[in-house]
């Protein structure tokens, strides 16, 4: 199978819904520790579809922004999230952006941390407890060490980024049911 062929849903894929930032509801599929969903938007006279992957074991989501400039196409954007499953059947995953982001380019390009000031303001103004802020920083450090930092490796590669399940789901056929809530 070439990378251009769509991947069909596997029997182990589970259909779930995402509610992101309390506004975007999207049907999605869960494969292992990754939930993948598409969402759309209209900008500059064109419709765009953005595929996003929630990494459940890391509490973050990644995507390759469709509106990145041409010289950054294929780069990744990573958001720190809170995650909460609703109900016993765990069919609705609520995600909330926690301001702290990373842009990940090719292996020979340094990654870029964004919005540290916004993250610092959140506990200061009560939007985030000090304990949750500390936990978010720990998750960020684990992500950087596990996925991006090469330590003493001199090769121009990254240790498993993007994760294999994300690579699998990049071309998967996903449900198209999505809407913005009022």
TrEMBL record:
Coiled coil: none annotated. Gene3D superfamilies: FomD-like (2.40.380.10). Pfam families: DUF402. InterPro entries: DUF402, FomD-like_sf. Residues 45-146 form the DUF402 domain. This is DUF402 domain-containing protein.
């Amino acid at each position: 199978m070439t990378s251009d062929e769509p991947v069909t849903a596997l029997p182990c894929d589970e259909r779930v819904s995402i509610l992101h930032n309390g506004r975007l509801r999207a049907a999605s599929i869960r494969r292992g520790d990754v939930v993948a969903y598409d969402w759309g938007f209209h900008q500059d006279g064109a419709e765009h579809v953005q595929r996003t992957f929630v990494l459940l074991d890391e509490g973050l989501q990644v995507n390759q922004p469709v509106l990145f400039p041409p010289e950054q196409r294929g780069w990744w954007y990573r958001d720190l999230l809170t995650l909460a499953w609703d109900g016993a059947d765990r069919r609705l995953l609520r995600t909330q952006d926690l301001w702290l982001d990373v842009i990940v380019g090719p292996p020979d390009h340094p990654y870029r941390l964004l919005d540290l000031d916004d993250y610092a303001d959140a506990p200061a103004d009560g939007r985030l407890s000090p304990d949750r802020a500390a936990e978010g920083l720990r998750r960020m450090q684990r992500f950087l060490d596990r996925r991006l930092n090469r330590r003493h490796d001199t090769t121009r590669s990254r240790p498993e980024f993007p994760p294999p399940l994300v690579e699998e789901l990049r071309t998967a056929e996903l449900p198209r049911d999505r809407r913005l809530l009022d």
